Amino acid sequence: MTAPVDELAVLLKSLSYDLRVYVSAGTLRPAGGSGGLTKAVAEQVQALVAELYEGYWHQYAYGTDGPASAPQIELSLYPKSLAEATALLGELASANLMFPEFAFMDRAEATSIAARVVGLLGPGARWWSNRDDLSVDTVTSCSYDTFVIGSDGDRFALLIQVGDD
Q1: Which of 36, 124, 135, 160 has a CB 3.0–4.6 Å from the CB of 147, allowing a cystine?
Q2: If we measure between CA atoms, which residue out of 162, 135, 161, 158 comes closest to residue 23?
Q3: What's the superkingdom here (predicted)?
């Protein structure tokens, strides 16, 4: 039996931080055509990024192109293990990427909640980030952003931190 989307949403919401860390959870919309799961999760990332851009972050965008498209985001999906996803969720929820001394919440608490989120999607879930071992592919057209998204094929959990220097 899988955990309901509402439980994912509640846990993710506890990891959010006003005007910095944003979350989304739900059922995947059909991706249509080829691409499957990575296309569907890229579309979820793009939907949240577009919402953030229109709602607040457009004022900090560099350039006029706006946020990345779903196909661009799909190219920026770097696979993460369950442990890497848990650690990155905890990191993004607990401290500012540009100014790590500015804490949003206790790192141990954030990591504990992140482990529960990862656990709810289950051991067969796949996880991605726009951060690889050496760099980050920005998707918001702001100075920095990093996201983590996971899916069990039916549901998804997404967290993104956005900022400007």
Answers
A1: 160
A2: 158
A3: Bacteria
Q: What's the token pair of residue 39?
A: 């296309």
Does residue 125 register a pLDDT over 60? yes
Model pLDDT, residue 137? 92
> What is the pLDDT of the chain when averaged over all its residues?
91
Does 74 score more than 90 pLDDT? yes
Instruction: For residues 40 and 110, give the distance between their C-alpha atoms in angstroms, rounded to a whole number.
Output: 26
Q: pTM higher than 0.85 for the full model?
A: yes
Give the three-state DSSP class for 146.
strand
- Strand intervals (E) in the chain: 21-27, 78-80, 126-129, 144-151, 155-163
Give the total number of structural domains in the chain. 1
Query: Counting Cβ atoms within 10 Å, is residue 35 exposed (0-12), middle (13-18) or buried (19+)?
Result: middle
Take residue 89 and report the two structure tokens written for it: 């969720």
Which structural domain range is residue 131 located in?
A: 5-163
Within 8 A by CB and 6+ apart from 88, the residues are 80, 129, 131, 146, 148
